[in-house]
Design a protein that fits this description.
- This protein has 512 residues and is mostly beta strands.
- It folds into two domains: 240 residues, 5 Propeller (Tachylectin-2, Chain A); 189 residues, Sandwich (Jelly Rolls).
- It is built from no helices and 41 strands.
- Strands 25, 30, 35, 36, 37, 38 and 41 form a seven-stranded antiparallel beta sheet that branches.
- Strand 15 and strand 16 form a beta hairpin.
- It is globular and about 75 Å long.
């Protein structure tokens, strides 16, 4: 069928740090998950009925018993989840990289995609990353994944393996097969495998070239799930690497296919919007159409605007721009840096309270921080802070890309300070004296120009210093797998404290 419904899709369909998307359809409902790395809860899950409008219904890994991120480095943690549905059960399989607890590949299950999801079933025999599930017509379950070759001819040379999964014990069994490797000679990181059965044939979709500007999507097919697989003569079926570094959408790859309930095919994938010399938003989730020619999928180039599916539109109610913290449960847009082992926050009566603790940004710990993704190139955030700092204490707004790259707009015993940490080096950019009482804080960004502001009286905003260079958040996809987060933060900076910082509201506004 065609896709001439008259409506449009605006890419990305999930703006901000939502990389490595995986999708499944159950009837007329679609569910999508993405990677989360060192952020908790892990693996956000989204629901759609038209592939265009998405709402977050929770996280797959929302309990500390499911996800130990203690000590995980920046860009470690949860890599590349896959979501699948089989015989009334949802399955999510992923990789945990690093940390002080168990690591490797595991899967969790649920009968309701909104949860609760089970505790992990670890797969100790599944080496490598990017595991995926495939359920054949006869009910046989398979796991495929990516691992580096034991004998590499170059760094980053990988292979795709395949093995059966026992759905009663959640353990791998039977012969392990190597079914694929890089299509292009010398290409790095053949990864992100997904298997599908379409019109009696088995199709293997992989990524190749690394997750930066050389990223691409490759396809192979076979008559049997175990192979041998034959490459598509048109490979790569999707890449933007030939369009140059100045193209507005780059790094296209890590794709998953889905057929909509009108019979058309689509691909979700990650890509990057580079602007002003940086990639501040990280890798985001995009959508593009797929058609079939001679038994092979043909993917359309990824465009900022494209035709929408012909299935009926199903928008969800808009989320408010301002969070007044009226619920004891935080909105699912909020995240913690690594696993929270104690409840350092409280909400529910029109304010968020953060208890000051010794943990601080810049260390591989869980600081008193709740943060949400930056989702637009131009945006403004505002909040109000009630806080009387003691010696060495601080609280306020922060923008975080990694442990080594972040900016703090915080009240301290010395007044209001704007502090930059870039590549591990800390610099105070600006300072202002403050009277006792409430202070309003804000940051407004236009491209890579970020301006910190404050107000002692509501509406009487003042700039704190000049615009600072947002390119410190613009690490490339090869340097950092995450994107920029904006949040509320409090720390006693290594000292014990009973102090509390209070935030009555937080507002995030896109400006374009």
């Amino acid at each position: 069928m065609g896709k001439e419904g008259g409506r449009l899709v605006r890419n990305p369909i999930l703006p901000g740090m939502y990389p490595d998307p995986s999708i499944c359809r159950v009837g007329e409902d679609y569910y999508l998950v993405t990677s989360t790395f060192e952020w908790f809860p892990g693996v956000p899950i989204f629901h759609s009925r038209d592939l265009v409008n998405w709402r977050q219904i929770g996280h797959v890994l929302d309990r500390p018993s499911q996800l130990n991120l203690d000590g995980v480095r920046s860009s470690g943690g949860i890599f590349a989840p896959t979501i699948r549905y089989h015989d009334g059960v949802f399955y999510m399989i992923t990789t945990l990289v690093g940390g002080s607890g168990p690591s490797g590949n595991f899967l969790v299950t649920a009968t309701d995609p909104a949860g609760p999801w089970s505790d992990p079933h670890w797969l100790p025999d599944a080496r490598g990353i990017d595991p995926s599930l495939f359920f054949d017509d006869d009910g046989t379950a398979w796991v495929c994944g990516t691992r580096e070759k034991e004998r590499q001819s170059y760094r980053g040379e990988t292979e795709i393996w395949l093995r059966r999964l026992d759905l009663d014990t959640f353990q791998l069994y039977g012969e392990e097969l190597v079914i694929w490797e890089a299509v292009q000679r010398g290409s790095v990181w053949c990864e992100a495998p997904h298997i599908y059965k379409i019109d009696g044939r088995y199709y293997l979709v992989t990524a190749e070239g690394g997750t930066s500007t050389e990223h691409s999507v490759m396809v192979a097919r076979a008559d049997h799930v175990t192979g041998p697989y034959t490459p598509d003569p048109r490979n790569p079926i999707l890449t933007h690497r030939h369009l140059g570094l100045d193209h507005p959408i780059s790094c296209t790859g890590h794709a998953d296919l889905v057929q909509d309930h009108a019979g058309d095919w689509w691909m979700v994938l990650l890509a990057v919007r580079r602007y002003g010399g940086g990639e501040n938003l990280g890798r985001e989730t995009f959508l593009t159409s797929v058609r079939w020619e001679d038994g092979w999928p043909v993917a359309s180039p990824v465009e900022p605007v494209t035709s929408a599916p012909v299935v009926p539109a199903h928008p969800w109610p808009a989320s408010p721009a301002c969070d007044h913290f009226d619920s004891v449960r935080l909105s699912p847009v909020w995240n913690h840096l690594r696993t929270p082992r104690e409840r350092y926050w409280s909400a529910g009566d029109g304010r968020l309270r953060l208890r000051l603790r010794p943990e601080r940004l810049g260390e591989p710990v869980n600081p008193s921080l709740i943060a949400r993704r930056q989702q637009h190139m131009d945006f403004a955030v505002h909040t109000a802070l009630d806080f009387q700092p003691g010696p060495g204490e601080c609280a306020g707004l922060v923008l975080v890309r990694s442990d080594d790259n972040h900016v703090l707009l915080v009240r301290t015993e010395h007044g209001l300070e704007l502090i930059r940490r870039e590549a591990g080096e800390t610099t105070r950019l600006a300072h202002a004296e403050l009277p006792p009482g409430r202070v309003h804080l804000g940051v407004e960004a236009h491209g890579q120009a970020y301006q910190a502001r404050y107000a002692v009286e509501p509406g009487e905003w003042r700039d704190l210093g000049g615009p600072f260079d947002g390119r410190l958040f613009g690490l490339s996809a090869a340097e950092s797998f995450t994107g920029t987060y904006i949040g509320l933060y409090a720390s006693s900076n290594g000292r014990p404290s009973d102090n509390v910082a209070e935030f009555p509201w937080f507002e995030y506004l896109p400006l374009s």
